[in-house]
Amino acid sequence: MLHLLFAILSSAGIFVCFKYLERYKVDILLAIIINYITASVCGYLLSDSKIQISSLLEQSWFSISIIIGIAFIVVFFIIGRSTQKAGISITTLASKMSFVLPMIFSIVFYQEPISLQKIIGFILAISAVLLSIYKDQKDTMQRKYLWLPILLFFGAGTVDSLVKYAQEEYLSSGGQEMFSTLLFAIAAISGLIVLLIKKQKLRSLFQAKVLIGGTLLGLVNFGSLHFLIASLNHSGFDSSIVFSIINIGIVSISVLIGIGVFRERLNKINLLGIVLAIIAIFILTN
Question: What is the superkingdom listed in this entry's lineage (predicted)?
C-alpha cells in the first residue's frame, strides 16, 4: 500500500510543480528537459548495477523503453497544444480519463478476473474523475480541434499500457531503475532535439528558475513512474485496480491541494466526485 500512496503523492506533486512553473512564468519546454535529465540521473543513482551503454543495448526492454521515452515527450506536446486550441477542461478530461485504456488492456491482454464488485468500483472510479474535474464555466472550442483531446486520450492511455506491458514482461523481477534511466534519458534527448529545431539557445536551460523548477519536477516525475511500477509489482492488486486507485487518488489529492494551497473553489459536483472516489477506493481494495 505504501507504493500506491507514494505513486499518488508523487504524481500529484507533478500537478503542484506545473502550477508553480506557471506562476513564476518558467518556460515549460526548458523545465521539461531539465525534468527528464533529473529523472534519468535519479534512475542511474538508484540502480543496483553500474549502467553501461553496452549493457543497456543487451536489455530485452531496450526497444520499448525508447518507444515510451519518445511517447512521453510527444504526449506532453499534445497536452500543450490541446490546452491552447481545445480548451483546458476537455484537455484535463481527456488526460484523466485515459486510465481507462490501461485498465482495459490489463483485463483483456492479461486476462485479469472480472467481478461485480470490480465493475461497480470501475464505474464509480470513472464517475469520480468526471465529477471531480467538472467546472461550471464552459471552454469554447472549435470543432476542428476536437482531434487533439481525442489524440491525447489514446496517447496517454497507450503510454500507460506500454508501461504495464514492460512491467509485466520485463520488470516483474527488478531492473526498473535501469529501465527508467534510459526511458527518461530518451525523453530528455527528444526534448533537446526539439529545442534545437526551435533554434533556442542551450544556455537558456541554465536559468536559476528553470533549473530549480525542472529539478523538482524531475524528482516527483521519477517517483511517479518508479512507484507505479513498484505498485504493479508488489501491491497485490490486479493492474486494472492499481491504475484506477492511483488515478482517482491523484485527482482527489490534486483537488484538495488546489483548495488548500491555490485557493481554488469546489462546487457541489466536485465534492460529490471526491466522495465517490473514496467509495471507489474502498470497494476496489476490499
Answer: Bacteria
The x, y and z cell numbers of residue 147, run together, are 482531434
In Å, what is the CA distance from 248 to each residue of 139, 175, 257?
23, 28, 14
- Structural domain spans, the chain: 2-284
Alpha carbon distance 250, 84 (integer Å) = 23
| Helices of type H across the chain | 2-23, 28-46, 53-58, 62-85, 88-97, 100-109, 116-132, 147-166, 176-197, 208-234, 239-260, 268-284
What average pLDDT does range 58-69 have in this prediction?
89
- Within 8 A by CB and 6+ apart from 72, the residues are 36, 159, 183, 184, 187, 190
The Cα 125–Cα 112 span in angstroms is: 18
C-alpha separations of 275 from 16, 264, 269 in Å: 22, 18, 10
Q: Which of 186, 180, 188 has the alpha carbon at shortest distance from 163?
A: 180
Residue 45: φ, ψ to 5°: -70, -30
Using DSSP, state whether 49 is helix, strand or coil: coil
CB atoms within 10 A of CB 236: 11
Question: In this predicted model, what pLDDT tens digit does every residue of 127-182 receive, in sequence order?
Answer: 988 887 776 655 455 567 788 888 989 999 999 999 999 999 988 877 788 888 88
Give CA 120 to chain center in angstroms.
Answer: 24
| Dihedral pair phi/psi, residue 237, rounded to 5° | -95, 155
Contact call for residues 96 and 255 (beta carbons, < 8 A): no
**pTM of this structure:** 0.83
